[in-house]
Structures are given as C-alpha cells and as structure tokens.
Amino acid sequence: MDKPSQHITSMIDPTLLARVVKGDQQAFSQLYDHSSTLLFTLAVRILGNREEAAELLQDVYLEVWRKVSRYDVGRGTPVAWLVTLTKSRAIDRLRARASRSYQTANSVEVGTVAEVADSGPSPFETQADQELRIAVGAAVAGLPQAQQQAIELAYYEGLSHAEIASRLNQPLGTVKTRIKLGMSKLRDSLQRWGNHGELQ
Amino acid sequence: MTHEALEESLPLYAAGALDRVERQALEAHLLTGCASCHSALKDYQSIAALLPLALSPTKPPRSLKSTIMAERNPAPIPAQTPPNEPARQSLEPGEWMNHLFPPVAPARSSSLPWALGFAALLIVVAGGYFAWNVSIQRSVATSNIQQLEASLQEKSTKLAAVQREVGDQAKTLVELRNELQQRTNEVAETKEQLAQRKVELEDIRAQLSRQGSAHVAGTPQDELAALLRIPNVKAVSLTGSDMAKQATGFLLYDSRTQKAWLYSVNLPECPAGTTYQLWAIRDKPISIGTFQMDTGETTHLLVKKVLSFTDAKTFAVSLEPSGGRPQPTGPIYLLSRS
C-alpha cells in the first residue's frame, strides 16, 4: 500500500488533478488513495450494495481519468467535485435500478465481494480529516430529526421534494422548509470549514 | 420563477431535492451569470459535499485500485482537453451540471485497440458535449416557454378584465339610454299636462267673465266695487292732514275674507327713500302695510290680508322711510275721522 502522503482527503490539491490530466499515473494513484474511501462510503450509502458501489467507483475514476478537464477550480474543491460526480452517478444507477424494478435489499450486502472491505477510517486520514469528520457529524446530528431526514432522502436517495412529501405524507411546503432550514443550519455551523472544504 | 424563488431554491438544489423542471430553470438562471446565486450555491454545495463525511467510513475493496489502474486508457488526451481553458471556462459546466453528463458505461474492455479507444473517447466527448449543449438549450427554451406562458397568462387576465369593464360600461350605457328615454317621455307628458292646464285655466277665466256678477271678480277695483255692496263690510273714511289737504281715502275691511282695502286719492308723490305706511290704532299703532305713490299717480288701492282690526278705533297713513317702521315716525298724511 502506498505510503501516506501529506495530502488529506478534504484538502486535495487542485494541482494534483492538473497532473492527472497530464497523464501522471502517480498523481492518479494519489488521487485514488485520498478520495476512494469517502467516495466508496458515499456510494455504499446510496446504493446499499458494496459490489455495485465498487463498480460505480471504477466508472467514476475512469471517468475522472478521461474527463478530468471538466473540473473547474473556480467552482469548488476537487473533493466537492468528486463527491458531486459520484453522487450523481450513484443516483443515476439507483433510478435506473428502480425503473427496471430491480429488487434489492435495503441492507448492505456484506460479504458478496470477494475481498471483504474494512470499515473504519482510511489510513490516509489525517488529524485535520478527523476534525472535519467530527464537525460534520456533529452538525448533521445537531439538526432536528425531521430536517435531517428530509435532507438525507434528497441527498442519498435522490428524491425530489415532492417525492419526499409523498413518502413522509407531509405537505410540500413543510418539506421544502425543512430542507432549506437544515441546509442553512449546516452552512452556519460548518462555515469555518468554509468554501474550500478546509479549515480556514 | 422570480429571482427570489430561484434564490430560495439554491439549498434545495444543493441537497438534490429539486425536480427536473425546477433544476433546469435554476441552471438556465445560473448560466446568465448571476453572481449572488453563484456565490450562494458554491457555499451550499461545499456544505453538501461535506455531508458524506458524517457517514461511517467504509474502505473500498483492495483489488479495486489495481482494477481501475489496469482498465483505464493508456493516457488521457491532455492536449485536446486542457484544464481551465480560459476561452471555454464560462461555458464549461461546473459541478452543479455534473448530473447532466450522460452516464458513461463502465469501461471494462482494456483489450480494445488504442485507436478504437481513442475513437470511442472522441464519440463520448462529442456526444457528452452535444447532450450538454442540447440540455442547456432545452433548459433555456423551457425557461423561455415558462416566462412566455406566464406573460400570456397575465395578458389573458388583463384582457378578461378589460372585456368585463367594456361589458359593464355597455350595460351602463343601455341603462342610461333607457333612463333618458323615460325622462323624455316624462317631459312630453308634463308638457301635455301643462297644455291641458292652460286650456282649463282659459275655460275657468271664460266662465268667470260669463258669470252674472262679472264685475265682482277680476281686478282689485272690481272686487272693491263688489265689496261696497256687501252690508257687513266695515268702512272707514280718511281725510287729508295739513300735509295733504287735498287727499282723501276710505278703508274697507271684510271680516269674511279678512282682507282690508285702502283706496287713497290725491296723496302727493313719495319723495325718494320714503313710503306711505297704513296703521290701525287701538292702544298702540299696528302696521297694516306700505305703498308707494309714483309720479303722476293720483289714486292708489292697497289690498292687504289682515287677521283682525275690528277693535281699531283710528286709522292713519304716515310717510316713513323705505321699508316702513314698526312704529310711526314720520308726518301723518291721512287720518280717520272717528
């Protein structure tokens, strides 16, 4: 396994992506090391299935390798870009699966992958990563249950506000307000981690 | 959608909670370069991107990295797609457009020749750009259609309101016309009644003149002459004072009609600003009325309605300032003998 570098997940240097674009295999390897745990966690949460999450990650990284020029440094951090890309692709899969009426258990299928993955932080996680993880966890846990639930249904299950309202049997306006309030609170409590996804 | 509504939808967009139409409308708005929305969205998306950090980390299978490293193409094509190309930056979709990228099929065919891979990559890139372009155009068109629909709706509402107003005014006009017609009819009717009354009046006058006692009715003089023939009419004669020695007069009072007649002869002409005033005197003088003697006038008949002066002992005519006085103040010109 690669030796941990100075990079932390939340602070992937945009120049790393520039190097990837130039075909730097080492840079690509570093990018994977510093982002794959976060992206895999996200994919598993959305898809509820490790095998499918692994397939998805494979697609995403190959897409990054080919389309990395799409990244625009003016519009967010590399991590934010990777998270958004992974989330979009995972939600696409989720919807495609729903349209095929593909029945899956909602639980995570542990053990279906030949190599069972570990739980726990990435070996590349730094002190700053841990602090950020704790801050985000606290901010999310600090939300009222209803707001947290509405945001998670949108974020991890790709449901629109109307679909959430229908799922929760709540008025549409209530659902919209919950999401808006929840996002505002998260923004306020995580403001010091700022626009760059890093401690300022 | 108003700007306020678009702005409010930013946190929903970052959370992924907007439906397709709303998302397209917001993306079309973002393409206009709205700085405040860009800034707010960047904040929300930075926060949204942190959310997975709240999950318990799950490490990917160890074999995944080697699989990916083995399956990627020999190299990207950096020369054709350099990062942050200034000329294209503003049109490049940012992270908020990523979900618009067409899903790419997993590339598992490392056995394909490089040329085929290159061609496939070109197709994918071209296809992606085309799809992105079509999506943008569709977003803008959808937004335009929505605006046009809203505008049309507004215009229709205004038109309906104007039509209602015109309808109301037409109704009011008809009502006014009816009312005018009614008034015209009433005027015609009144004119007809007036003509009828005139005819009746003329008939009555003719009847009066035909009556036996034709001399009684008509002018006051005629009436006076008739009175003289009625026995219970009180008559008082007046003689001229030193002020008018040639003057005489007599006064009649009909208790039946409560009318008094003063017939005066040879009273001198009233100087300017003066008038004659007739008084009935019992304990104190009571004014009966005033009259003028104009130039060349020798006789005058004063007719007044008087409730009662049967108790009056004396009658007098004095010269008073115009309009008369409550009590006699000027010289006496006529005085009763009794």
Terminal-residue CA separation of chain A: 31 Å
CATH topology of the domain at 220-336 in chain B: Immunoglobulin-like
Question: What is the number of helices of chain B?
Answer: 8
Integer count of domains of chain A: 2
Q: Any idea what the CATH superfamily of the largest domain in chain A is called?
A: RNA polymerase sigma factor, region 2, helix turn helix motif
The helix content of chain A is 55-70%
Rg from alpha-carbon coordinates of chain B? 58 Å
State the CATH class of the largest domain in chain A. Answer: Mainly Alpha
**Broad shape of chain B:** rod-shaped
Strand content of chain B: 15-25%
- The helix-and-strand class of chain A reads mainly alpha
Helix-residue proportion of chain B:
40-55%
Structural class of chain B: alpha+beta
Q: Rg of chain A from C-alpha positions?
A: 18 Å
What characterizes the major β-sheet of chain A?
Answer: none
Could you give the topology of this structure?
The complex is a heterodimer of chains A (200) and B (338).
Chain A: H1 14-21, H2 25-47, H3 50-67, H4 78-99, H5 127-141, H6 145-157, H7 161-168, H8 172-189
Helix pairs in contact in A: 1-2, 2-3, 2-4, 3-4, 6-8, 7-8
Chain B: H1 3-8, H2 10-15, H3 20-31, H4 35-50, H5 62-71, H6 86-89, H7 114-210, H8 220-227, E1 234-240, E2 248-254, E3 259-265, E4 274-281, E5 285-291, E6 299-305, E7 314-321, E8 332-336
Antiparallel strand pairs in B: 1-2, 1-8, 2-3, 3-6, 4-5, 4-7, 7-8
Helix pairs in contact in B: 3-7
